Amino acid sequence: MGDEPAGAASETPPDAMIRPVRAEDVEAINTIRRQPGVMAFTLAIPSERTVDSQRFVDGLGPDDHLLVVELEGRARGMAGLHVKRGKLRHSAELGMAVHDEFQGRGLGPLLLAALLDLADNYLGLVRVELEVLADNTRAIALYERFGFEHEGRKRKAVYRHGHYDDLLVMSRLR
User: What is the pLDDT of residues 56-91, one digit of tens each?
Assistant: First the structure.
């Protein structure tokens, strides 16, 4: 999707395809969200059902841009860009997840490059922001490679593994 920013994957599987989410991706999305590695570093919880993913997909509006990376005929990762409203319309919140078995294969950078291309070249966004668990060093390094900078820390923001953990606030300005 256009010129890839510094840090884009060079070893991405050749059959990986980025595309908008489809109704038939709901089961794969639910599977991705219930992966142990995804649950460890996102707000997903083990009791999420396919119907919860269905509600999420059905509830996407015109300012919600959800892409999936398809590999081997199935969605293996997803990333969303959710444009804000009113006086914040120049900005969007970003979130992403890749199935545990497909992490480290260049799918995360591929998804992130596609979303930032959308933000820059089609939506005209000035600010893309995200929150990431402070101990998710792999994701933080990816975001930094794509120009995201640290803005702050939300202390004890997320309850997981029996205690409260911090979230980092990061953004990329254009």
Answer: 999 999 999 999 999 999 999 999 999 999 999 999
Alpha helices by DSSP H, 21-130:
26-33, 36-41, 50-58, 107-121
What are the chain's domains? 17-130 (3.40.630.30)
Amino acid (1-letter code) at residue 104: G
pTM for the structure as a whole:
0.89
Cα–Cα dist 49/35, whole Å: 13
CB 33 within 8 A of CB 82: no
Helical segments of 3-106, H only: 26-33, 36-41, 50-58
Asked if 43 and 56 touch (Cβ cutoff 8 Å), the reply is no
Number of CB atoms found within 10 A of residue 160's CB: 14
